[in-house]
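ok so I'm stuck.
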Amino acid sequence: MQHSCMNVHLNTVLNILRLAFKHASHTTSAMTTRDRQMTQLKSQLAQLEANLVDMSNLMERTTEQALHIRELGILHASIFMSAHAAFENETFQAGQAEEKMMESEYEE
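replied:
not stuck anymore, here's the structure
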């Protein structure tokens, strides 16, 4: 009987130790998971910061390019306006020459 009672106590102690070990491993596992998640979060934040720095540099470059594109548009418009004026002048002179020619033919 004493042997049986001792066996029950031993089983109880073993069960308590198993539960304690299980709980400790879950706690350790939870801490390990949390540590891993925090490490991953730090890594993602570092990547986000690097991406924001890159985006800031690209925005500055885009702003500079937009100003240059504006200047290019102004130059392009100036060329079109001067070409239009030159063709208008040429057309006007050609029209006057044609009118004079027709007048001289009419007079004859």
